[in-house]
Amino acid sequence: MSTSPNVPSAEESHHYEAAGTPRWISLLFVVLFLGLAAVAVVGHLANTKVAQDLAKAQDQSKILAAQLDQANSRLADIKGHMEVTEQKLGMTQTELAEAKSRAESIRKEQKASDQRLTSQLGQVKQESEEKIGAVATEVGGAKKDIEATRTDLEATKSKLERALGDMGVMSGLIARNRDDLEDLKRRGDRNYFEFTIQKSKNAERVGPVQISLQKVDSKKGRYTMTVFADDKSIEKKDRTVGEPVQFYTKGAGRTMPYEIVVFEVGKNSASGYLATPKEAAPAAAPAPKPAS
Known about the structure:
Number of domains: 2
Structural class: alpha+beta
Helix content: 40-55%
Radius of gyration: 75 Å
Number of helices: 2
Strand order of the largest sheet: 1-8-7-6
Strand content: 15-25%
């Protein structure tokens, strides 16, 4: 059987198979090389990325460190403020405690003052009530005294009497003694000037006039005197005790005369009073010349 010239023989095929083996090895090496290259590239890229990440991490670390420093600075400031605040708070608490203590002291003092004031008010009230009671008693007593005085005056009025004077004019109420004269003074109807004059040629001043006692008769109760008033002398001769001796002056006019009442005569003296009107002006009494 004939073979085709284009078909290799078995030996040629074996030769071809023997000659083709190194190419696969080369391919394997190429593949390995490429793999190693790829691994190297990947490793380089990975290293580059790691380096970049590390650089970024370092940058972030620096930023964080700066932020940490700022935070620490802020914390230090806050701590300082807190310490100052604590000190101020401590001072404030101390001041509050002192203020509370002062307020308590003031409250106690105010309470004590209120108690003292209440006690004083009670004492004043008691004293006022006692004084009011005393005043009421005094007023009651004064009222009784007034009533008694009024009664006495009424009794005196009935006891005192009027008389016709030596000039024919009805006198006012006349006193017969010193007690009656005191009653007349209390009534206050006229001005009264009590006197006791001695027998003498010289005149003695009695109220607004001057009087000279010339003669006294104690047994008969009679006397003689001269009154000096308004630049003139008025002789009252041989008058009796208890008789109103009357005379007019320029100041009194002719409405109501001056009156002298002698209610007691002694051996050389006479006692009595001069009564003048309330509205009368003082009579100018001249100084008489002593008799030789």
